[in-house]
Amino acid sequence: MSYLGTTQTLFVNEVSNEGAYLDGHDLGEVFLPSNEIKYELEAGDSISVFIFLDNANLATATTKKPLAQVGEYALLRVKEMNSIGAFLDWGLEKDVLAPFNEQKPRMQEGYSYLVRLYLDNASGRICASNNFNRFINKTEPEYTPLQEVQLIVAGKTDIGYKVLIEEAHYGVIFYNMVFKNMFVGQRLTGFIQKVREDGKIDVILEKPGMGKVSDLGEKIMDKLKAEGGVIALGDKSDPEVIKKVFSTSKANYKKAIGGLFKQGLIDIEAKAIRLKA
């Protein structure tokens, strides 16, 4: 197994004025430049480093942390385009290449794209791709309704946000189910709404039921206390304003404040709610 493109703890074979030579196993000896060494090292010590290929295609170590490792997704900005592809800033001095045949859609200089890093078998290079179809799990999804899942926002479509579910399958969050600002590359928690017969997956961000309303009620109470006991959002307030303040629908907001009212915690007005004295 190659350590290239990952963070590993390696043992020091030798230390010189130029840097340290580390045991990179199947990569052979890996060089760590002296300007990357923040404390004294001796042969036999261990150190955590990220391993990549330098401009001479030699395995090199750095103590810097890139924005993503091989097998991970990240939102990266294109610094330069040339005849072989796009070079993206991933936090290291040497940029990472996204070959033209791995660009879907075609990238442009100065723009940021969600990409996955992979190890190219032919060249041995660490590369980036936004052609996610090659990484998606081709097996039939086995999610259950209301199962909690981790999501990465991959893009926008005519009907909603396209998301990666557990980095394994595509799903969609319909626009009318979105009550918070969302952007490509964002990571968030969601819930499976439905797995359709054709394998397409509908995802929601709010779990239906009183559990969600209870969480929202706590959030409303915290804001009331922080705002001196009054919030200018009542039973008749604009749904868009409620969405902006609490990242939820007006229906959920009304259920939550109704529950707080029944507990004797607040008074509800048309355009405001107040903590009871």
Automatic annotation (TrEMBL):
Domain Conserved virulence factor B-like winged helix: start-end pairs: 218-275
Domain Conserved virulence factor B first S1 residue range list: 4-64
Pfam families: S1_2 (PF13509), WHD_CvfB (PF17783)
Matches recorded under InterPro entries: CvfB_fam (IPR014464), CvfB_S1_st (IPR039566), CvfB_WH (IPR040764), NA-bd_OB-fold (IPR012340), WH-like_DNA-bd_sf (IPR036388)
Domain of life: Bacteria
PANTHER family in the cross-refs: CONSERVED VIRULENCE FACTOR B (PTHR37296)
Sequence similarity: Belongs to the CvfB family.
Protein name, as recorded: GntR family transcriptional regulator
Species: Pseudoalteromonas porphyrae
